[in-house]
Amino acid sequence: MGGSEERRVGGDGSGQRLDKWLSGEEPGLTRADWQRAIRAGEVLVEGRAVAPGRCLREGERVEIHPAARARGATRSPRAPEPESWPLVVLYEDADLLAVDKPANRVVHPGPGVETGTVVAAALGYTEGQLADLGEPERPGVVHRLDRETSGVLVLAKTVAAGGALQAAFRERAMEKEYLAVVRGVPAEARGTVDAPLGRHPRHRVRRAIVEGGRPAVTHWELLEGAPDRTWSLLRVRIETGRTHQIRVHLASLGHPVLGDSLYGGRHYRRLDPLPVPEGRILLHAHRLVLPHPGSGNRLTLVAPIPKDLQSTGRASGGQHTA
């Protein structure tokens, strides 16, 4: 196909449906978009038209015609509708709302996800009092957590608070601490990964350590190691907040987060020594310290250790101090 882009299926794509693999590789289009494009002959596998449910094999060549991407280009962002499902509120005042984000929940609507988001529940809880920060689908959003990650998430309730919080994240005026259960036990008690991150050269949905990428610094400390050395609990502090930063940096040490299908290797479920539910990785945003956007005072937010980490960690309850 003239002007088509060609991609090769990596090991992590082997056995996946074509439409599902494409929606992961190209997050700007929904799975339904890809299904329509495949049926229209705008996507070929090894030069042939196939069905959306065709299972891929490692090394296969996938050709994507520009017309396939045009299907999502005119879609306007949709503001989320308020929803009613239980939120665990860690702290709230006139400026902000801090919640304990559950695992397997998306923060805001995006391709293929229109309902069930954290901001939809927050809109329901606050009766629509989240700040309009210029992106209709992301009211109040000043930072994000991956879908599979749990823990402290802060949302702005006013435009002024949103601007102040965004500036604090941008200027690294935050202290961000995570807990991670990883495969194996590091040889050292603590360490730092200082390695720039950017898009993976072949897999659009992944990040990688790349020359010329954005600076990223991750500090880790060993809290507990399994007697058989199959897993360990780490305390992780990040100076920067790049997409998938902790996941990429820990995997680069040979200690991927348990349950991580993107960075834990092709056979991650067989290799992981502990069971992890679908839609979950054992990574928890445990503690966030920030300047309050109104008073400027130091605000400490702590999300309680979730049950799937309690058996391995040194748990403490949620708290805040202003």
Architecture overview:
The longest helix is centred in the middle third of the chain and has 12 residues, at 159-170. 18% of the residues lie in helices and 26% in strands. Strand 10 (197-199) and strand 11 form a beta hairpin. The protein has eight helices and 16 strands. It is of the alpha+beta class and 322 residues long. It has a domain at 5-70: Structural Genomics Hypothetical 15.5 Kd Protein In mrcA-pckA Intergenic Region, Chain A (Roll), CATH 3.10.290. The strands form three sheets. Strands 5, 6, 7, 8, 9, 12, 13, 14, 15 and 16 form a ten-stranded mixed beta sheet that branches. It has a four-stranded antiparallel beta sheet with strand order 1-4-2-3. It has a two-stranded antiparallel sheet with strand order 10-11. The model is unreliable at 313-322 (pLDDT under 50).
Could you provide a short overview of the structure?
This protein is of the alpha+beta class. The chain has a domain at 5-70: RNA-binding S4 domain (Structural Genomics Hypothetical 15.5 Kd Protein In mrcA-pckA Intergenic Region, Chain A, Roll), CATH 3.10.290.
Order of helical and strand elements: EHHEEEHEEHEHEEEEEEHHEEHE
Task: Classify the oligomer.
Answer: single chain
Extract low-pLDDT stretches: 313-322
**Annotated CATH homologous superfamily of the domain at 5-70:** RNA-binding S4 domain
Please work out how many helical segments DSSP would assign: 8
The number of E-state strands comes to: 16
- Can you summarize the main beta sheet? 10 strands, mixed
